[in-house]
Amino acid sequence: MSVIVETQRLAIRRLTLDDAAFVWELLNDADFLTFIGDRGVRTVDDAIEYLNQGPLEMYERLGFGLWCVELRVTQTPMGICGLLKREWLDDVDIGFAFLPEFRGKGYAFEASRAVIAHATDVLGIQRLAAIVAPANARSQSLLGRLGMHYRTLVRAPNGDHDVQLFTLGIGET
Q1: I want to staple 58 with a disulfide (CB 3.0 to 4.6 A). Which of 43, 65, 98, 101 is the partner?
Q2: CA–CA separation, 147 vs 109, rounded Å?
Q3: How far, in whole angstroms, is CA 146 from its chain's centroid?
Q4: Angle, vertex CA 125, rays to CA 120 and CA 128, nearest 5
Q5: Confidence check: pLDDT of 173 > 70
């Protein structure tokens, strides 16, 4: 496995096609569907296609993407956290999602903090963004604890609802 960064409790590594069943489960979680959106992943084969066209393609093109977050001791996949470059956003953004049984335990904060440090210290990214559904108070709180600041509402091209844009880094006002 290609580990990107480790923390005391977590290993953050590249997703692989072997993660397809985990990705299928995560992308079909009720909170993922509500707050992030339906990616149309209905089967494990769909998850393989999602991985190939999303994270794996982004790794090849940019050297980063969404990464698997797992418990270091057991190597149990628990969520994803990583960096995305969306055509419609000026900045690279951080994204995260965790399975229900791993929420509320500080894993998302720990993983996000490690990803932000990797982005700035290793990749040289000086400014990060994050987008979050206006109804997702838990993620908004997490972004605030990470030092990110709310900026404005934005809408993705062909999007059907606005999302909140947060930023962190050089050039903030």
Answers
A1: 65
A2: 11
A3: 14
A4: 95
A5: no
